[in-house]
Amino acid sequence: MDKEQAFQGLNDVAIARQKTSELRNYRGMGSIVSAWGIVWLFGFGAQATFPSFAPLVWAVGWLGALAWTFTRPPKPQDFRALATWSVVVSTIILILVVTRSDQTTAAMIFGLALSAAYAILGIWLGKRFLLLAAVVLMSASVGWWLLPQWLYLALALGGGVALFVGGVWLRRP
Amino acid sequence: MKKCHEIIHQQHRLRIMAALDSDREPLDFATLKAVSGTTDGNLGAHLLTLEKAGLISISKETIGRRTRTWVLLTAAGRLAFSEHVAFLEDIIQTSQKTRETES
């Protein structure tokens, strides 16, 4: 065997490892993304249709989705997972406190923050997350600039449904 | 230890082995197909070759009407793969040393 063949072989090994790791990340995150999609769908759907029920829907959704996230395999192995979620939850609480008198701004900031989070996942874990980031950003932007009176519905249908479908898509090799 | 394994060296089988080696958990048929870039028929044939050589083990799981195929690297397969990768790395290193000596 010559040097070129050996190089080609090692290159194939590297490609296979990288692709397997990417697919494992997608598979691990798929059901979690779908769960958060359902929370978005019902949370923003409630804000658009029955605003008085929205806080209850959000609270139940958040608790359910967090429980789902932490019980999916692989379970978090070290403190960094817990630290990451602590940062996420603290940021959300901060956004809610700062924008408590302006719920539409809070909704838009959530859309942008989620889109940024998926973009970062896309850079580190696999490019399918970039597409999810783009869809969430688009639905938030359309709702905010073009259909401000339908912002919640745009986030529920554009963001929520896209995340749910995106989660199912992530689980496919 | 460095050793060339002819069965493993074929491009698709090398990718299959690398994918299986990167995880202690079994991988399903669809994932291996995506990683190796083969057709269903070719992948089946490659898996059979690797199984006959004792490098992998194949199990079937029935979920409703569908059957899911799971593939796991055996201890012998993991060892053979690491020996083959070491063999490939050795060729590259030897080649680099030769070039450095010449220059």
What can you see in these coordinates?
The complex is a heterodimer of chains A (173) and B (103). Chain A has helices at residues 3-49, 54-71, 79-98, 103-124, 128-146, 151-170. Chain A has 173 residues and is an all-alpha fold. The longest helix of chain A is centred in the first third of the chain and has 47 residues, at 3-49. Chain A is elongated and about 70 Å long. The mean pLDDT of chain A is 85. Chain B has a three-stranded antiparallel β-sheet. In chain B, 28% of the residues are buried.
Task: Write a concise synopsis of the structure shown.
Chain A contains six helices and no strands. By secondary structure, chain A is mainly alpha-helical.
Mean pLDDT of chain A: 85
Alpha plus pi helix count of chain B:
5
Our Rg estimate of chain B from Cα atoms comes to: 16 Å
* Low-confidence runs of at least 5 consecutive residues of chain A: none
Rg for CA atoms of chain A: 19 Å
Record keyword descriptors for this entry.
heterodimer; A: 173 residues; mainly alpha; 84% helix; elongated; B: 103 residues; three-stranded antiparallel beta sheet
Topology:
The complex is a heterodimer of chains A (173) and B (103).
Chain A: H1 3-49, H2 54-71, H3 79-98, H4 103-124, H5 128-146, H6 151-170
Helix pairs in contact in A: 1-2, 1-6, 4-5, 4-6, 5-6
Chain B: H1 6-9, H2 11-21, E1 27-28, H3 29-36, H4 40-52, E2 56-63, E3 66-73, H5 75-102
Antiparallel strand pairs in B: 1-3, 2-3
